[in-house]
Each structure stands twice: as structure tokens, then as C-alpha cells.
Backbone:
């Protein structure tokens, strides 16, 4: 699938060393439009609404922040840790600036782990971009489905 | 000679020739000669060769503006106010600047190329910032995700700083990370031990510097440090200190407490230190701080677990550290000399503590913090 001009520019800024040292694409070699299209299709197959998933990630972040930087149990299944670093990150599409943070959601027994940030939530909500395979902040559709099922 | 070989050879030769011509033209056309950098109305001045970004040029002169990304325009940390005309803001700068900063002509020093004389404003604390070469002397695991790292300074051999300040580690390229980055950490060592720098580093998921410290850094390894930075420090008043931290937020307080005890500085101050964690697995320095409390009557240590496990036999306070803080201010801490807040941690933790403190009569102007933001 062909990338639009905005996607081409965003793709360039997603490479390692532009906005973050590791970039947003991981080991994924597909074009941006292909990554987005494939993930939207996978979310649809799993019955995950991206906006509901984003709202769930925001809720987990807000609950996790009650731990004031320390891990905290959220419900019976999840432990959430929120961390903050100095600095801000711009969206690769240049439509916002986000505090540099990380939210780690882990099953109490440690089987499932999802790591994301405020920028990840924005990328999901506004651009339907879950990051490339192998990116440390990728929102894996199967884990998003688990998070929603737990509501 | 075969045309299959001649073709590529001619193309390579032409490319090399063109590259040489471009390099020569660049040297002639982009030769800006000598330019002067004037800082804070003549307090410092450097005459340098023009053509390079301001950030790197200042660093070459020994003046280090904080930068996390090493000058690639991806962290927004290296802001300076420019008083002379250096042209309009670049698209690469705009995402990192708010409207007020744009109107004040605040710029990213890594993005400004020195083409003519320039006048800038910088915090004067940066004048004492130095780059240090050091050797890792020890690495200690404090918890499953926090390490204490002790660096011995090689050159310069000593650092002058105030307890509470931070320093930047220069992280070299490693693994998939192809470029050097810098990250800031509060120093937990005492200023009196000026030949060492100690840091407490918590592993951040996906974090470049913390992953390097936790998985790659070894005893004996050479590491560059840049600092000191920051204005988080003890204020000279008789008011009692309410210090709150969790995790690696312990670092500046460890430095402050031991420095105060050894120097008997700020002798009128009572010190209350609130340290929160989820379980004992997340706690560290417990014995050390309890011993400090025994040895130093004006120091009070309050450790609290938010989710103690039944089998942990935890004897201390329980609950979120903000709730414990609220209870102590209301029931146990004397207010006759006034109260001051000292906080180190995430913006969420700091906002929650400010809320508790102000509701209990601590003036917001008397709350000092080192926010990881």
C-alpha cells in the first residue's frame, strides 16, 4: 500500500535517532500504511474497538498513578507501575507534545506485560498506530483484547 | 578492460570528484569566520569558529547546556534565550517550545548554527558544569529494579556540588542503540566525598539509559558524566523539613541527610522523611535509615507499604504515602517553627503531595521539588 506524504514524513521521524533513540518501528520493515492497516484488521478480528482500548489504557494509567511511582494493584488481575523521565516527546505526525513516561501493566502472575506511554495512547487514538513489531512500546492487539475483556 | 568494470569505475570516480567539489564549495561558501558568543551581557564571552551548532560549540569551550539526545533535536532540553537575531524558529524547534518561549526567542541550542555574533542568556549555574571522566567502582542491587552505582572521578578528580543536585550520564552506543544519549540522575553521594558520584538508577521499561546501566554497565568501565545541574537543595530556615520520596527518588535525600548530619548544618531543622513502597520487595536502605534515626535525634524516618503481604510481618506504617503524610502532619509533627516540603519523584506523586501539604497549611512557596519532567 502506498504511504501518503504525511505518512512518509511521520515514518522518517519514527526511525531510531529522530524522536527516540530506538524509534517506533522495532524490527518491522513494512510501510507505515501497511502496519496500520494490518493492525486495524487484527483489532477488528479480535473485536477490539481502538477508542475503547485507548480509554482502557488511560484508565489503567490513572489508576496506576495512584501508586505515586510505585507499583499498585488494579483490580484482581493487574499490577500497574508508572514511571516518568525528564523531557517531552513530539508525535511523529507533529500534532502534539507528550510527557516522557512509561506505564507498565503486568498480570499478577507475570504472564502478560504491556508497556506504553502517553504518546502511545495518542498514536492509537488519533492515528491508529500501535507501533511496529519489536518496538518496546508496541500495543500488541492480543494484549489489548485481554485488557478489555477484564473490564 | 571490460565495459562491465569500466562503467562502475567511471561512475565511482565521478561521484568522488563531485563529493570533493561539494566539500570545497561548502568550505568556501559556508566559511563564517570567527564569531563571538556573548553570555549574560558580557559575563562570559567566547570567540569561536562559526558554522557549527551553538550547543556543540559551547561544549567545546567547556560550557555544558543540558541535553539528553546529544544534539539531535529530539529531547528539547538544550533551551537558551537568544537576544540577537538568528533568524526565525525552525520547524525542528517548534514542537518543543510553548508560545511564551517562542515570543521570548527561546531556542534549541542544538538547532542554531553560528553564522554571526550572538548574544544569549543562560542560568549562571551552568558556568560551573564540567564534563568528568570516571570509572565504575561498584554496582549494588538495592531491589529487583534499582541499582546503586558508584563512580570514581578520574579527571577532573573532584566535583563541587550542593546536596540535591543532579548529573547527566553519557550513555555510549550499545546493542541496537546507534547514537550516544545523556540522561539525568540525582546524586545520592555526599558533596564532602568529592572524588565520587553515586547514583540510584531504577530500570525503566524500554529506557535507553536505565537498560544500559542495568544490563551492560560493569565495574571498571569508563563513563563520562556532565554536571552538576539543578537547584533542588535544603533552604536555610528553621522550618521542619517534610521530605517525601519513593523508589530512586531516595537519591537526593540520602545526599542531603548524610551531608547535614556530618556537617551539623541547618541545626534548627527537624527532618521528617516519608518513604513509600508497595511491598518489602520494593524497599531498600531500611536498616541504614533506621540506624540514622537512632544516631541523629532530629531525623525521623517513616517507611510505609501500600500493599504489605500477610507473610511479610511488616511493623511500619501502611497505606499510600500521601495518606501517611497527612496523618503525621495532623497528629505527630510539631508546627511551631513552620513546615517546608521537599519532594522527589513523578509529577503525579509531587502533585498529590503538594495537595496534602497545602491542605495542612504548608504554603506552596515553601514546597520544593525535583520533578522528573
Residues:
Amino acid at each position: 500500500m502506498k504511504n501518503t506524504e504525511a505518512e512518509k514524513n511521520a515514518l522518517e521521524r519514527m526511525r531510531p535517532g529522530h524522536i527516540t533513540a530506538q524509534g517506533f518501528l522495532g524490527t518491522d520493515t513494512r510501510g507505515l500504511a501497511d502496519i496500520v492497516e494490518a493492525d486495524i484488521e487484527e483489532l477488528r478480528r479480535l473485536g477490539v474497538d481502538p477508542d475503547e482500548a485507548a480509554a482502557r489504557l488511560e484508565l489503567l494509567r490513572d489508576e496506576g498513578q495512584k501508586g505515586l511511582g510505585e507499583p499498585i494493584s488494579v483490580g484482581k488481575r493487574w499490577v500497574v507501575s508508572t514511571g516518568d523521565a525528564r523531557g517531552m516527546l513530539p508525535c511523529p505526525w507533529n500534532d502534539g507534545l507528550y510527557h516522557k513516561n512509561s506505564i507498565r501493566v503486568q498480570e499478577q502472575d507475570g504472564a502478560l506485560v504491556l508497556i506504553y506511554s502517553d504518546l502511545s495512547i495518542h498514536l492509537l487514538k488519533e492515528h491508529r498506530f500501535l507501533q511496529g513489531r519489536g518496538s518496546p512500546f508496541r500495543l500488541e492487539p492480543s494484549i489489548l483484547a485481554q485488557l478489555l475483556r477484564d473490564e | 578492460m571490460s565495459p562491465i568494470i569500466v562503467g562502475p569505475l567511471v561512475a565511482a570516480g565521478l561521484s568522488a570528484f563531485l563529493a570533493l567539489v561539494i566539500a570545497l564549495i561548502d568550505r568556501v561558501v559556508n566559511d563564517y569566520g570567527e564569531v563571538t558568543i556573548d553570555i549574560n551581557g558580557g559575563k562570559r564571552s567566547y570567540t569561536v569558529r562559526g558554522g557549527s551548532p551553538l550547543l556543540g560549540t559551547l561544549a567545546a569551550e567547556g560550557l555544558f547546556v543540558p541535553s539528553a539526545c546529544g544534539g539531535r533535536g529530539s529531547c528539547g532540553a538544550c533551551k537558551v534565550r537568544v537576544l540577537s537575531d538568528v533568524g526565525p524558529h525552525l520547524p525542528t524547534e517548534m514542537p518543543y517550545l510553548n508560545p511564551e518561549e517562542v515570543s521570548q526567542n527561546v531556542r534549541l541550542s542544538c538547532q542554531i548554527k553560528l553564522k554571526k555574533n550572538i548574544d544569549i542568556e543562560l542560568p549562571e549555574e551552568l558556568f560551573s558544569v564540567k564534563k568528568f571522566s570516571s570509572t565504575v567502582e561498584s554496582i549494588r542491587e538495592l531491589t529487583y529494579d534499582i541499582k546503586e552505582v558508584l563512580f570514581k572521578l578520574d579527571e577532573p578528580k573532584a566535583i563541587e556540588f550542593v546536596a540535591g543536585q543532579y548529573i547527566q550520564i553519557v550513555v555510549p552506543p550499545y546493542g541496537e542503540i546507534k547514537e550516544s544519549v545523556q540522561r539525568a540522575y540525582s546524586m545520592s553521594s555526599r558533596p564532602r566525598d568529592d572524588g565520587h558520584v553515586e547514583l540510584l538508577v531504577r530500570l525503566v521499561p524500554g529506557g535507553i539509559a536505565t537498560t544500559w546501566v542495568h544490563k551492560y554497565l560493569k565495574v571498571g568501565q569508563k563513563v563520562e558524566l556532565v554536571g552538576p545541574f539543578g537547584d533542588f537543595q535544603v533552604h536555610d530556615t528553621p522550618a521542619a523539613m517534610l521530605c517525601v520520596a519513593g523508589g530512586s527518588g531516595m537519591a537526593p535525600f540520602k545526599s542531603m541527610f548524610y551531608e547535614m548530619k556530618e556537617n551539623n548544618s541547618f541545626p534548627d531543622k527537624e527532618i521528617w522523611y516519608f518513604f513509600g513502597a508497595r511491598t518489602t520487595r520494593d524497599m531498600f536502605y531500611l536498616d541504614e535509615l533506621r540506624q540514622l534515626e537512632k544516631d541523629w535525634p532530629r531525623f525521623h524516618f517513616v517507611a510505609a507499604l501500600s500493599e504489605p503481604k500477610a507473610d511479610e510481618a511488616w511493623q511500619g506504617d501502611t497505606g499510600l504515602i500521601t495518606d501517611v503524610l497527612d496523618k503525621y502532619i495532623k497528629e505527630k509533627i510539631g508546627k511551631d517553627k513552620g513546615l517546608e516540603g521537599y519532594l522527589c519523584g513523578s509529577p503525579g506523586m509531587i502533585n498529590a503531595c503538594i495537595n496534602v501539604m497545602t491542605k495542612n497549611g504548608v504554603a506552596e512557596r515553601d514546597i520544593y521539588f525535583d520533578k522528573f519532567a
